[in-house]
């Protein structure tokens, strides 16, 4: 089992910045990816940014150039720095850790409880 604990988030005006963090504990050897998904009101959960143990990353097109995912493998922690935030970034952000195939297809996933990020216009 892997447990994920998120921190950060909150309310920010458009154009501002926020960061979120997630710490994984448990059977860390069972995962090869950590990152972030989000779910906006009325929409399905979508990928935001993830990073493999190898360092390879995958970003949603909508956040490229604005968000940065980073990891501290020694601390089993993943971060998401969010800059130039837009109202459409408003969502519940979920930390994700899992075992993924090289083509980004999941074998199994673990999820945090989710944290609210709200961007006002």
Q: What's the structural blueprint in terms of helices and strands?
A:
Elements: E1 2-8, E2 10-13, E3 18-26, E4 33-39, E5 46-52, E6 57-59, E7 67-72, E8 77-82, E9 91-100, E10 106-111, E11 115-120
Parallel strand pairs: 2-11
Antiparallel strand pairs: 1-3, 3-8, 4-5, 4-9, 5-6, 7-8, 9-10, 9-11
What do these coordinates show?
There is one protein chain. This protein is mainly β. It contains no helices and 11 strands. The strands form 2 sheets. Strands 2, 4, 5, 6, 9, 10 and 11 form a 7-stranded mixed β-sheet that branches. The protein has a 4-stranded antiparallel β-sheet with strand order 1-3-8-7, with no helix packed on it.
Tags for this model:
121 residues, mainly beta, seven-stranded mixed sheet, four-stranded antiparallel sheet, 0% helix, globular
Unreliable runs: none
Query: Can you give the helix content as a percent range?
Result: under 10%
The main β sheet shows up as: 7 strands, mixed
User: For the terminal residues, how far apart are their CA atoms?
Assistant: 40 Å
What amount of the residues lies in strands? over 45%
Mean pLDDT, as a whole number? 95
Total DSSP E strands: 11
List the total number of helices. Answer: 0
Question: Could you give a short description of this structure?
Answer:
By secondary structure, the chain is mainly beta. The protein is 0% helix and 59% strand.
């Amino acid at each position: 089992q892997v447990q994920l604990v998120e921190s950060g988030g909150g309310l920010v005006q458009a154009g501002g910045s926020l960061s979120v963090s997630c710490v994984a504990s448990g059977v860390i050897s069972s995962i090869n990816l950590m990152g972030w998904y989000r779910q906006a009101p009325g929409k399905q959960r979508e990928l935001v940014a993830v990073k493999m143990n190898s360092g390879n990353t995958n970003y949603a097109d909508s956040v490229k150039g604005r968000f940065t995912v980073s990891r501290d493998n020694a601390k089993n922690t993943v971060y998401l720095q969010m800059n130039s935030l837009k109202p459409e970034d408003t969502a519940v952000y979920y930390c994700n850790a899992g075992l993924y195939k090289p083509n980004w297809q999941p074998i199994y996933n673990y999820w945090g409880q989710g944290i609210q990020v709200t961007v006002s216009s």
